[in-house]
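ENTRY TYPE: paired fold submission
RECORD: A
CONTENT: sequence, then C-alpha cells
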Amino acid sequence: MSKVMCRDNAEHYLWSNDCQGWHLVRSDQLSVIEEEVPPGGAEVGHHHGVARQFFYLLAGEATLVVEGEPVILVAGQGYEVAPGVHHRFENRSCEPVRFLVISSPPAQGDRVEESDG
C-alpha cells in the first residue's frame, strides 16, 4: 500500500564519508532515493549492468563525472545515466548537495566498481 513518503519516515542509511540516503521508493522495478553529500564527498567510480539512473539535484551544485567528463549540475537540473556508462557523483562545492537518484530497475546489487585512475 502506498503512503506519503519523506525523509522522516523513509529507511535511512549511511555511505562513504558522512554521505547519507533515504529510500523513498523501494520495489523490484523502481528505486527512488534522496541522498545528501557533504562538501568534498564523492562515490567510487562505477557502472551498472542493467539499471538506468536519473540524478536530479534538489539543492546545491554537484559534479557528475560521466565517462571521464565532468557534468556540472545545479538545483533543478538532472542527468540520465544509461546502463554500462561509467560514472561518479562528486560534491566539489563548499555546501552540502541534496539530490534524488531514480533507478529502474533498482541499482542495488547491480553495481560494478571501476578504477577512477
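RECORD: B
CONTENT: sequence, then C-alpha cells
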Amino acid sequence: MENQIELFTTSDTKTSAYLLTCDIPLVKIVKENPHKIVFGFHQNEDVKRLLQQYWTNQAKVNPRKLFDSLDYLKDLIHRDYDI
C-alpha cells in the first residue's frame, strides 16, 4: 500500500507566502481556472503551529523575505509554470 502524504491546501496567496517565508516548501500548485490558484504544502506539526501563529497575529518573519515569497508566488500565478 502506498503511503499518502496529507497536504495543507489554500488559495490564499498571503498565507502561502508566509509558509514559504518560514521555509515550508511549496509542493503543489493547481490552476483550477484563471481566477483560482491552489497552493499545496506537506501537512505536518510545523505547518499547524505556523498557521496557528499566523491566524492569532503572533507570527514574526523577516518582511523582506515575506515580500520575496509573495513575488515568487505571483510569478508562479502569472506564468505557465508548474511544480
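NOTES ON RECORD B: Residues 7-78 form one domain. The radius of gyration is 13 Å.
STATUS: closed
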